[in-house]
Amino acid sequence: MAPTHALVRRAGALAAAAMATLALAGTATASAGPVESATTLPRGHDVSSHQKRVDWPAARAKGARFVYVKATESTTYRNPYFSGQYTGARAAGLIRGAYHFALPDRSSGTRQAAYFVRHGGDWQADGWTLPPALDVEYNPYSTRHKCYGLGRARMVGWIRSFSDEVRRRTGRRPVIYTTTQWWKLCTGNSHAFAGSNPLWIARHGTARPGTLPGGWRYWTFWQYGIGGTLPGDQNLFDGSVSRLRTFARGQ
Q: Which residues participate in catalysis according to the annotation?
């Protein structure tokens, strides 16, 4: 997804991932059309302050059924458009959730999770709210420190503490958004989360998500492109629309 500054949106993170090269539902291209036209899976997107004021009815008319909205980053940034984006998506009939952009070198996973939940990352079993999501990927602010200066064990511990705190505060484990290459590099391909946290895999420029990281057998969401018919990044859910609503309810 996107760090705070629009100018490094994907340029530092997923472009670096391309250069270096969710699990409970089970059931990309810069030009999103081929994927969109070849699947009947529910389409969605993710947005941040970069999209500002989204035309949600238009997104719905173009096929969007769900969206993730960036809420926070570290413990110092809140998306100034979050409230309008989040409520606007719901008013247009989209199932929506919030995500947090992790900066593991700034503060603990527990602190960032608490900040996230307080500022938009909560969850309720209403069938319209997706579980909170953690965006953990290449460091957009330093190409030298792709893993934020944390060793693999410390990174796994950071993600675990974030996940534990989100669950304590909301009752749901967060969806984990990442790339296969980053996960291998920065966690040692840890299998610690495959049985508990849904996977949101990011892989662009291919017809399928490919090899999944860390013992995950299935993806729940797939971000397949950064440009397409929907505002922001393009995603699919691996299941039917009714399954998506069941997933949102936590069943």
A: 46, 137
